[in-house]
UniProtKB/TrEMBL annotation:
InterPro entries from the UniProt entry: ApbE, ApbE-like_sf
Catalysed reaction, written as an equation: L-threonyl-[protein] + FAD = FMN-L-threonyl-[protein] + AMP + H(+)
Molecular function terms, GO-annotated: metal ion binding; transferase activity
Pfam family, one: ApbE
EC class of the enzyme, as a word: transferase
Organism listed in the record: mine drainage metagenome
Keyword Transmembrane helix on entry: no
Record key words, sorted: FAD, Flavoprotein, Lipoprotein, Magnesium, Metal-binding, Transferase
Cofactor dependence: Mg(2+)
Record-given protein name: FAD:protein FMN transferase
This protein's encoding gene: apbE_2
Presence of keyword Flavoprotein: yes
Annotated EC: 2.7.1.180
Amino acid sequence: MTFFSRLVLLLLALQLAACGKEPLYQEQAYVFGTQVDVSIYGEDDAKARQAVILVIREFQRLHDMLHAWKPSELSDLNTSIAQGKGRQVSPELAMMLKDAARVSAQSDGLFNPAIGGLIQAWGFQADDFKAVLPDEKKIAALVKANPQMSDLVIDSTNVKSKNRSVKIDLGGYAKGYALDRAAAILKQQGIHNALINIGGNVMALGTHGSRPWRVGIQHPRKPGPLATLELHDGEAIGTSGDYQRYFELDGKRYCHLIDPRNGHPVQGVEAVTILTHGEHAGLLSDASSKPLFVSGVQGWAGYAQKMQLDEALLIDARGVVHLTAAMQKRLKFTDESTPREVVP
């Protein structure tokens, strides 16, 4: 074989190898205290990289703006509220607070970003958690003070509170809001096929080539997914679980998800996952999972209906998966013997 023939064959082989490479660009970052993954399909690396840079930059902006215990626009507002004063905030934050108050009212206050004082008392407004129980008298006082989002008085961009015990923590809202912002930025950049994952809150744009995006729902007690499902364009899933931010003491797990009615971490629930659609699907995937988690095994189905969530599941402390019939149709369980209870 001549040198020229070998060169032609080598170039052909390289060309075939390049054709076989999936056009998938993936980038990871760490924002909002969790891992962020962005996958973009069908675009050249330069275009995809630039779009991801803009998304991560937006995530960092929101993180800095909404940080609950480090200097931020939100922490400045909390300081003013504690002093009984009003404060001018950005139009964006005012809009978020109004929207969070709306979701809180819809959930009968089970989604309650005003209980930052309770979250702080349990040690979860920190990068590292210590296995220490708070003073019960302090918890009782905070519960009695009954901080609610409805205590806020929002006049254009001026915010004040009728209750000084209100301390806003948007940790159960910000990731979902960021998903919607990421989707808008990607579309502005001409990206139509992408998957955005912020610590288990996931939104899909378009498809993964000729097929839908497929994502896993983390098993709360084992490595790997409990189940997988296909996410279609504009859909999002959100999971609230007791396995990421928690501490254990004397064999008992205390997670960051606080029941505002008694001031204590929710017991008896390992995880809740919901599937959302339409406008603000990302935001809904984050905020709307909390009432189901807090209401527990007895109340979750009622709140799924109240929050207009057709596809939802709850995993109880025994590992039983309680789920709606609509969610059952969407899932492929890793272990088909997983115990399940389906509600209409």
